[in-house]
Design goal:
Blueprint (H helix, E strand, L loop, with lengths): L8 E4 L2 E5 L3 H5 L1 H11 L2 E5 L5 E4 L2 H7 L5 E2 L15 H4 L7 H11 L5 H21 L8 E3 H6 L1 H11 L6 H12 L4 H23 L5 H11 L6 H14 L3 H14 L1 H9 L4 H12 L8 E3 L3 E3 L2 E3 L4 E4 L1 H4 L39 H18 L4 E2 L20 E3 L1
Parallel strand pairs: 2-3, 4-10
Antiparallel strand pairs: 1-2, 3-4, 5-7, 6-12, 7-10, 8-9, 11-12
Pfam family, one: p450
Keywords: Heme, Iron, Metal-binding, Monooxygenase, Oxidoreductase
Family: Belongs to the cytochrome P450 family.
């Protein structure tokens, strides 16, 4: 069977195909991936120059993310052209596997545990209140963009505080973050040398002025036991952790947009702030920014669900499909901020991935989102959109994100 169907998904050889250049798929990936999921646990993603396979169902997705037959490699990333002296810093922890990945993860993970994130909450609350204090000053004709003046600056301020980027260096990191957030391209490639120099400067400053932060801890590890962490790895970790720390930006913006579009859910959250933690989990599941995971490559010729996958072929997880799989979640297309994760009819979402590459900053992202939503809804009870968020989506097949979020406050 072959031929185009509504929403840009087709079928070839019994495997549904999803055309990621189709405007309808970009506009509503949840429906497109949902149709594919109900036809097969495996879909073919049509991407110009780099087609790949996608696992669509929740249980199968969890299995793939821990399957040793597949690995993340350098080819999993679109690496920009950078000067030769920057290349050693470009191989990040995200593309490492096995013992090498585990060694570095063990060095940074203690700073991102649920307990440490909870202990960091008061500092996050102070940062959130400060950003919200400034929000009205950015209003024009009664409207302010929550993406650019709240959701975007907040995570960068939080991660700089946690990692230990000195105050004097933070304006530069905010600029780097804005460039990276704008997406790949010439501006991104051009920013790489400055980002590397910024990471080197942050390391040097913390070596001279140590503090109570992750970077100071890593500098001590490097200076006291260089076998555990090389100088190149230290610089790489700084820039990767700081720029990856922007992840909550799209989570917070998507969450606010979803709540404004679902007044009953917003009212439930206002009526009972105690449910904010479970609401954050539900919002990550329902409208989290990750649509597709970093692709894995087959180490050998394998078979998935009766389909032969050649050595080196790319396979991703369609998180947008797995997080709305009716086999894992009751009434999965319904946003329900009272949903309790982990109950018999509600599995754990894959918004932070799963397995060895589960997002190391997940606990910090959760706390940020909880604090951000709680404070925003408390301080601005009349919050309302001035432009429907549906018309402000970035045409990005991998990330569900907004170009802006103008609201009245």
């Amino acid at each position: 069977m072959s031929g185009t169907e509504a929403g840009g998904d087709r079928e070839a050889g019994g495997v549904p195909e999803v055309d990621l250049t189709d405007p309808e798929v970009i506009r509503d990936p949840f429906t497109a991936y949902g149709r594919a999921r109900e036809r097969s646990p495996l879909a073919r993603l049509l991407i110009p120059g780099m087609p790949m396979w996608a696992v669509t169902r929740h249980e199968d997705a969890r299995a793939l993310l821990t399957d040793p037959r597949f690995e993340i490699t350098e080819s999993s990333f679109m690496r920009p052209d950078v000067p030769a002296d920057c290349l050693p810093y470009m191989r990040t922890m995200s593309e490492m596997e096995g013992a090498e990945h585990l060694r570095l993860r063990r060095l940074v993970a203690p700073a991102f545990t649920a307990r440490r994130a909870a202990g960091f909450r008061p500092r996050i609350e102070r940062i959130v209140e400060g950003v919200l204090d400034d929000l009205p000053a950015h209003a024009e004709d009664g409207s302010v963009d929550l993406l650019w003046h709240f959701a975007r600056p907040l995570p960068m301020d939080v991660i700089c505080e946690l990692v230990g980027i000195p105050e004097a260096d933070r304006p530069s990191w905010r600029e780097y973050g804005a460039t990276i957030a704008a997406g790949a391209g010439q501006a991104f490639a051009a920013a790489i040398p400055a980002i590397m120099r910024g990471a080197e400067a942050a390391v040097a400053r913390r070596r001279e002025e140590p503090g109570d932060d992750l970077l100071s801890d890593l500098v001590r590890v490097r200076d006291e036991d260089g076998d555990r962490l090389s100088g190149t790895e230290l610089v790489m970790l700084v820039w990767q952790l700081v720029l990856s720390g922007q992840t909550p930006t799209n989570l917070i913006a998507n969450a606010v947009a979803a709540l404004l579009d679902h007044p009953a859910q917003l009212a439930a959250l206002r009526a009972d702030p105690a449910i904010v933690p479970r609401a954050v989990e539900e919002l990550i599941r329902w409208c989290g920014p990750t649509l597709l995971t970093i692709p894995r490559h087959a180490r050998e010729d394998v078979e998935l669900y009766g389909v032969p996958i050649g050595k080196g072929e790319a396979v991703t997880v369609a998180v947008a499909a797995a997080n709305r799989d009716p086999r894992a979640f009751a009434d999965p297309d319904r946003l329900d901020v009272t949903r309790v994760p982990g109950t018999p009819d509600t599995a754990s979402h894959l918004g932070f991935s799963h397995g060895p590459h589960f997002c190391v900053g997940a606990s910090l992202a959760r706390v940020q989102a909880e604090v951000a939503l709680t404070a925003l809804l408390r301080r601005f009870p009349d919050l309302s959109p001035t432009v429907p968020p549906a018309g402000l989506r970035v045409p990005d097949p991998g990330t569900w994100r907004l170009t802006g979020l103008p609201v009245t406050v």
